[in-house]
Amino acid sequence: MNHPDTRPTSASARRALVIAASLAIGCTWALPSAAEDAKTIAATVCIACHGEDGNSAIPMFPKIAGLQESYIVKQLRDFQSGRRKSDIMAPVVAALKPQDLAPLASFYASQKIKPSSDADKKAAEFGKMVYFEGNEETGVPACVGCHQPQGAGHLIYPRIGGQHVTYVTQQLKNFASGERNNDVSRYMRVVAKRMSEEEIDSVAAYLAGLDSK
Ligand code: HEC
Ligand code: HEC
After folding, report:
1. Does the CB atom of residue 210 touch ligand 2 within 6 A?
2. Other C-beta atoms within 10 Å of 14: how many?
3. Of 126, 201, 125, 196, which is closest to residue 169 (Cα–Cα)?
4. Whose CA is nearest to atom 29 of ligand 2?
5. Nearest CA to ligand 2 atom 15
6. Are 61 and 167 in contact (CB under 8 A)?
7. What is the pLDDT of residues 46-58, one digit of tens each?
């Protein structure tokens, strides 16, 4: 049986092949890798609010160092789709390409969160009880069951140890009011709705000081 001749027959077709081949070779060294792109974006865009290594110095901007990689990707997608609302993050993520998300998440997930040392010690003591025991009377579950010891997090449960007090209290209030409603299975809306203001402030004070290695 005769195979069709696949060799280029005309000079112009041969030229096209040569150009295509040289472009393919050129691409391997001319274009920066996705990881380098992410580092450039982190160092020029995200740094303004989240700090150089994801340890934001401003209490209303979350520390994103050491968050779970899949959690970061999910949040960036949720900001893009509007499932998680933020007037600040919306324009930032609108400028990102789909291929930027995973390398950005990997970069911040590999950074180490630095705990804050200025949280109220007395409040933190009560907060520790809330974290490990919840509140049986009002049905607040223990945070540790999902967020792990030291608030280190695991898979879909984000690291919350070391996070800013202001950010944590704001997010818990947003979950309670339903303003933040992008949580899987409504877990956090149910939890936060049952918490008193004192429990919210105290658990945030406890979390801020955790050095989650
Ligand atoms: C102008 C300030 C600003 C810039 C720039 C910015 N962010 Fe944010 N980011 C915020 C704020 C504010 C929030 C909290 C939004 C909210 O209230 O829910 C946030 C939230 C996040 C979260 C969710 C954190 C969590 O714990 O759930 C991630 C992830 C994130 N930003 C990543 C990035 C990345 C990656 C970049 C760069 C491409 C970036 N941000 C640039 C202000 C900023
Ligand atoms: C049943 C599991 C579960 C329990 C119990 C739980 N959480 Fe969560 N929490 C989650 C999940 C899942 C998310 C991530 C939601 C998302 O995908 O946006 C989350 C997110 C959070 C966030 C937002 C983190 C960020 O970076 O924006 C805070 C703060 C938080 N939880 C605090 C608590 C506290 C405090 C308790 C205990 C009173 C608690 N959680 C109990 C599952 C849980």
Report:
1. no
2. 12
3. 201
4. 168
5. 183
6. yes
7. 999 999 999 999 9
Instruction: Give me 173's structure tokens.
Output: 């209030």
Amino acid identity of 101? L
- Does the C-beta of 126 come closer than 6 Å to ligand 2? no
Amino acid at site 96 = L
Query: Rounded to an integer, what distance in angstroms lies between the CA atom of residue 211 and that of residue 213?
Result: 6
Among 200, 209, 210, which residue's Cα sits nearest to residue 127?
Answer: 200
* Residue 124 CA to its chain's centroid (Å): 25
Residue 117 vs residues 58, 169, 211: alpha-carbon distances, Å: 14, 17, 10
pLDDT per position as a tens digit, 131-177: 999 999 999 999 999 999 999 999 999 999 999 999 999 999 999 99
Which of 71, 152, 60 minimizes the C-alpha distance to 112?
152
Tell me how far the alpha carbon of residue 93 is from its chain's centroid.
Answer: 12
For the chain, how many residues are written?
Answer: 213
Distances, alpha carbon 156 to alpha carbons 91, 136, 139, 179, 199, in Å: 25, 25, 22, 20, 23
Does residue 168 have its Cβ closer than 6 Å to ligand 2? yes
Output the six-digit token pair for 206. Answer: 């406890």
Question: Tokens for 147?
Answer: 């967020």
